[in-house]
């Protein structure tokens, strides 16, 4: 969703801002803008709201940018309050045109603040909630406060979530920023100071990064900075460990980020497993969880909360916890959990699963669970993200930045860490024999190689996409671990190819949805070998008898399955609960191929944002 970048002390401030905005694009946005502090002490601003191509249009509007500007701020906006128009795009200016401000988040009491400000003579030029902030800073400055002080003094009056950055025309090398809930990082590179809402935006510009904390105010200049709390007391900022470099946020020769990220999946899973699993003994090491063996042994129930692909990973995690740790487990869509009277207390371990660590639905579910007394951990790919900070413990997936909107490598890394967590719980409770734990750990250690093999079947997937990709309706069917896998395959097809794809438990079709099956329906059946293969085969027969075309996801060389299907997507055999780790690969690829054939942008599907910070 929205993104912020700011720079001070650069030879080419505009270049740094545009480079940062480009790397914020993946979050999803509908308008963009920049403001530069020109050497003559005037603020120069350009904004664009051309749908989906704002950045290109913004760049086209920039030839008259003032030369020699060393500082400025930029923003990508995903509209909430007010339509995606130029007037609503950030940066916003105060009445004097001397201050420019960018904001991520939502100011809940903006109407009341705006009414007051209008009464005091301020003129508003947008419909956004954000604009009140710049007028409040303007007033505080007029009352004699310096820029940082001005921002500090207004924050008590502001309700909501925000990351905000301000520049003033008369202080060319100063960036001032603050945050509450919405993330903000900052750092220094060669002679420059940068800040951003997302690490990816400042990769390659800053060498060491720090994270700003809630209700902290930053005054940032080239070579120095100060951070204070709202009372003006100095605060030591937290250094941020970034495990990847600029290359990780570039396409690196691939046509699109999605291809690159699918290709990175063996590494994402191997890195996520590294040091956490001993394939020889089945021993697990999740020290970072900050929950000891005794605490884990006392857990009576596990509840996963997540959205989208993270929810599908959670459904597999739930099955692994039940099967291996013999603990009652549930997985629930976070937006539903939050508003249900969920019965969770200290005996429950809540696992919030979120690639971004920022999804509002999952964040609020996590908070609600903790409010009810549950112990809560977060599984996320983003170091120091909101959910990482708010949980009692955190398990990081180590997939590197995922830029494509549709989750691929992060989804597989989530599956891997959730299976390790299930194994860890099983060992803490002595629920598995050392031999079984060792076998599972050995199989998990072999998953990166299995993913590599699955990636090698791209030609087979492309051929299936050629034959059946034109269909208008798809049904993805599975049982047990095959069901979340089917759900993930259907979601990928919906979000990338904009095709109706329904995921259903294979055994449930006969209770109603089978009425929809007719010649031309394409059924993608999860038919790898496992205890339920016979049942799935029977369900396939039921669909075939009604004219459906069957695409079966099956084990390599499984001729019996091939004989009951029209086409197969083959994957290396794995133990049943590990199958989604490899079998998601052809389903991702299938959605990718169908989307490309239909001419869609696979990295930025319509209507979607990578980071969903609204409910
Ligand atoms: C689908 C996808 C989304 C996300 C969902 C949750 O490809 O990426 O369904 O999984 O929006 O996002 P996170 O995991 O960041 O909480």
Tell me what the structure shows.
This protein is α/β, with parallel strands linked by helices and 615 residues long. The longest helix has 20 residues, at 409-428. It has 21 helices and 24 strands. 36% of the residues lie in helices and 22% in strands. The radius of gyration is 26 Å and the shape is globular. The protein has three domains: 3-242, Glutamine Phosphoribosylpyrophosphate, subunit 1, domain 1 (4-Layer Sandwich), CATH 3.60.20.10; 257-445, Rossmann fold (3-Layer(aba) Sandwich); 458-597, Glucose-6-phosphate isomerase like protein, domain 1 (Rossmann fold, 3-Layer(aba) Sandwich), CATH 3.40.50.10490. The site of fructose -6-phosphate has 14 residues, from helix 10 and helix 18.
Decide which structural class fits the backbone: alpha/beta
How large is the share of residues in beta strands?
15-25%
The molecules bound to the chains, other than polymers, are: fructose -6-phosphate
Examine the secondary-structure arrangement and name the CATH architecture of the largest domain: 4-Layer Sandwich
Specify the oligomeric state: single chain
Overall number of structural domains: 3
Radius of gyration: 26 Å
CATH class call of the largest domain: Alpha Beta
Q: Main sheet, how many strands, which sense, barrel? A: 8 strands, antiparallel
Mean of pLDDT? 93
Q: CATH topology of the largest domain, anyone?
A: Glutamine Phosphoribosylpyrophosphate, subunit 1, domain 1
Please tag this protein with its features:
Rossmann fold; 6-stranded antiparallel β-sheet; alpha/beta; binds fructose -6-phosphate; 8-stranded antiparallel β-sheet; 615 residues; globular; 24 strands; 36% helix; Glutamine Phosphoribosylpyrophosphate, subunit 1, domain 1
């Amino acid at each position: 969703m929205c993104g912020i970048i700011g720079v001070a002390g650069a030879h080419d401030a505009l270049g740094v801002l545009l480079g940062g905005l480009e790397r914020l694009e993946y979050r999803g946005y509908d308008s963009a803008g920049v403001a530069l502090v020109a050497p003559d002490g005037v603020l120069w601003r350009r904004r664009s709201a051309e749908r989906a191509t704002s950045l290109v249009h913004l760049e086209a509007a920039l030839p008259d940018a003032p030369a020699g500007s060393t500082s400025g701020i930029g923003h990508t906006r995903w509209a909430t309050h007010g339509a995606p128009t130029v007037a609503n795009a950030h940066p916003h200016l105060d009445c004097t045109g001397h201050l420019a401000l960018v904001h991520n988040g939502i100011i809940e009491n903006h109407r009341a603040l705006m009414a007051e400000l209008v009464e005091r003579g301020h003129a508003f030029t947008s419909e956004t909630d954000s604009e009140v902030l710049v007028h409040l800073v303007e007033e505080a400055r007029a009352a004699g406060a310096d820029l940082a002080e001005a921002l500090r003094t207004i924050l008590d009056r502001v309700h909501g979530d925000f990351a905000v950055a301000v520049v003033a025309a008369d202080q060319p090398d100063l960036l001032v920023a603050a945050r509450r809930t919405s993330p903000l990082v900052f750092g220094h590179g060669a002679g420059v100071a940068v800040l951003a809402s997302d690490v990816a935006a400042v990769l390659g510009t800053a060498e060491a990064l720090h994270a700003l904390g809630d209700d902290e105010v930053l005054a940032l200049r080239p070579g120095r900075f100060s951070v204070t709390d709202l009372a003006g007391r100095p605060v030591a900022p937290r250094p941020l460990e970034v495990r990847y470099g600029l290359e990780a946020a570039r396409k690196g020769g691939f046509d699109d980020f999605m291809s690159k990220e699918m290709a990175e999946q063996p590494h994402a899973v191997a890195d996520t497993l590294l040091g956490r699993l001993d394939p020889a003994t089945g021993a697990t090491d999740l020290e970072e969880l900050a929950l000891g063996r005794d605490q884990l042994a006392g857990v009576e129930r596990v509840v996963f909360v997540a959205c989208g692909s993270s929810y599908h990973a959670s459904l597999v995690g739930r099955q692994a916890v039940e099967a291996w740790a013999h603990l009652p487990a549930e997985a629930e869509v976070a937006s539903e959990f939050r508003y249900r009277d969920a019965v969770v207390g200290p005996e429950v371990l809540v696992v919030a699963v979120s690639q971004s660590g920022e999804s509002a639905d999952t964040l609020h579910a996590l908070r609600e669970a903790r409010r009810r007394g549950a112990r809560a951990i977060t599984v996320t790919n983003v170091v120091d993200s909101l959910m990482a900070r708010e949980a009692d413990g955190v398990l990081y997936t180590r997939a590197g930045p995922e830029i494509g909107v549709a989750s691929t490598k992060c989804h597989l890394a989530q599956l891997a860490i959730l299976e390790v967590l299930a194994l860890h719980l099983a060992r803490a409770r002595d629920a598995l024999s050392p031999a079984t734990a060792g076998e599972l750990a050995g199989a998990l250690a072999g998953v990166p190689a299995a993913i590599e093999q699955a990636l090698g079947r791209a030609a087979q997937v492309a051929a299936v996409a050629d034959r059946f990709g034109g269909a208008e309706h798809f049904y993805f069917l599975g049982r047990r671990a095959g069901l979340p896998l089917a759900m993930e395959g259907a979601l990928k097809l919906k979000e990338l190819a904009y095709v109706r794809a329904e995921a259903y438990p294979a055994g449930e079709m006969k209770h109603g949805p089978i009425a929809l099956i007719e010649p031309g329906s394409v059924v993608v059946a999860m038919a790898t070998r496992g205890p339920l293969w016979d049942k799935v085969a029977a369900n396939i027969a039921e669909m075939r008898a009604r004219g459906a075309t069957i695409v079966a996801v099956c084990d390599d060389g499984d001729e019996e399955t091939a004989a009951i299907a029209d086409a197969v997507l083959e994957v290396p055999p794995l133990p049943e609960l590990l199958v989604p780790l490899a079998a998601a690969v052809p389903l991702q690829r299938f959605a990718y191929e169908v989307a490309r054939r239909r001419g869609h942008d696979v990295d930025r599907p319509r209507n979607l944002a990578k980071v969903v910070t609204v409910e």
